[in-house]
TrEMBL record:
Residues 1-48 form the Maturase MatK N-terminal domain. Usually encoded in the trnK tRNA gene intron. Probably assists in splicing its own and other chloroplast group II introns. Pfam families: MatK_N (PF01824). PANTHER family: MATURASE K (PTHR34811:SF1). GO terms for cellular component: chloroplast. This is Maturase. The gene is matK. GO terms for biological process: mRNA processing. Keywords: Chloroplast, mRNA processing, Plastid. Belongs to the intron maturase 2 family. MatK subfamily.
Length: 99
């Protein structure tokens, strides 16, 4: 357990805020990475919905023991994207949309 004045608790909150930003605001923060041509090449049909899958490389920086050393990692991240136009077409075919 950590008390409220320890740096461990602050680092934990920073980690949670960064995760929140990365997960929920991904499109806003990385808007320039979406390419329509790549979406149409790598899409697949699953349960009537079109979905695209791409692998992105994201840079992670790890810091251990307060400035002892820094590690840069570049893991592959799997992103699933549902393009809007095929999704609307699939919903219209299923008579989900009324207009």
């Amino acid at each position: 357990m950590a008390s409220k004045d320890t740096p461990l608790l602050m680092n934990k909150w920073k980690y949670y805020l960064v995760n929140l930003w990365e997960c929920h605001f991904y499109v806003w923060s990385h808007l320039g990475r979406i390419y329509i041509n790549q979406l149409s090449k790598h899409s697949l049909d699953f349960l009537g919905y079109f979905s695209s899958v791409r692998l992105n490389t994201s840079m992670l920086r790890s810091q251990m023991l307060e400035n002892s050393f820094l590690i840069n990692n570049a893991p592959k991240k799997l992103d699933t994207i549902v393009p809007i136009i095929p999704l609307i077409g699939s919903l219209a075919k299923a008579k989900f949309c009324t207009h």
